[in-house]
């Protein structure tokens, strides 16, 4: 129900924006700001999910492919010439390295996605500054009303995205773990 109310309010804001007869440049600018917000919220969602996966030690299923990507070592360890303790040592070392690599890849992905969040925020802020510079000479009431609508819509977009993130994060409280990263700690 709350999401539906946000959708209705969002649609009304868009209608109100166009009723004020914005210029083509103002429309383009609003679209850039809104799209940057959407992209920023998607990136924030991805960061939140990745951080939750790390904190709950639940990797994405795609990381499971790494367990089978070192076939050459598995083939070598399967040779009958290895003593059991040596085979166990190399296999354990291999598993620890793979687990560390997975952890490092997730950390790197989080860092890159956080940088993407900042980039989208910068795009939005730069476009808002440009809006203010380009419109300060025009009829003040009109462009300020347009800017107010843009800001109100941004608030709705952010509220909707945050609710969606909380819903997705709560999934981890009930989902079974697929891959646990305990090998990093030596457990």
Model description:
It is a single chain. Helix content is 77%, strand content 0%. It has 187 residues and is an all-alpha fold. It has one domain. Helix 1 runs antiparallel to helix 5 and helix 2 runs parallel beside helix 5.
List keywords for this structure.
187 residues, mainly alpha, 77% helix, disordered C terminus
Look at the helices and sheets and give the structural class. Answer: mainly alpha
Q: What would you report as the Rg, rounded to the nearest angstrom?
A: 25 Å
Helical proportion, percent range: over 70%
- Helical stretch count? 5
* Number of individual domains: 1
Mean pLDDT across all amino acids: 85
Poorly predicted spans: 179-187
Q: What does the largest sheet look like?
A: none
Principal-axis shape equals elongated
End-to-end gap = 45 Å
Q: Tell me what portion of residues adopts beta-strand conformation.
A: under 5%
What is the count of β-strands? 0
Order of helices and strands: HHHHH
Structure summary:
By secondary structure, the chain is an all-alpha fold.
Task: Give the secondary structure arrangement, pairings included.
Blueprint: H1 2-19, H2 24-55, H3 71-77, H4 84-135, H5 140-174
Helix pairs in contact: 1-5, 2-4, 2-5
């Amino acid at each position: 129900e709350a999401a539906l109310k946000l959708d209705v309010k969002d649609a009304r804001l868009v209608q109100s924006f166009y009723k004020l007869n914005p210029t083509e440049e103002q429309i383009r600018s609003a679209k850039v700001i809104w799209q940057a917000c959407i992209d920023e919220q998607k990136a924030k969602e991805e960061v939140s999910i990745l951080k939750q996966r790390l904190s709950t030690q639940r990797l994405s299923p795609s990381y499971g492919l790494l367990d089978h990507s070192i076939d050459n070592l598995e083939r070598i360890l399967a040779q009958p010439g290895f003593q059991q303790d040596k085979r166990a040592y190399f296999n354990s070392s291999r598993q620890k390295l793979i687990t560390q690599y997975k952890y490092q890849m997730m950390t790197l992905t989080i860092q890159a996605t956080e940088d993407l969040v900042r980039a989208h925020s910068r795009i939005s802020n730069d476009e808002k500054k440009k809006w203010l510079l380009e419109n300060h000479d025009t009829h003040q009431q009109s462009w300020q009303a347009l800017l107010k609508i843009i800001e109100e819509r941004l608030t709705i977009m952010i509220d909707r995205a945050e609710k969606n993130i909380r819903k997705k994060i709560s999934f981890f409280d009930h989902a079974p773990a697929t891959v646990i990263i305990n090998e990093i700690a030596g457990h």
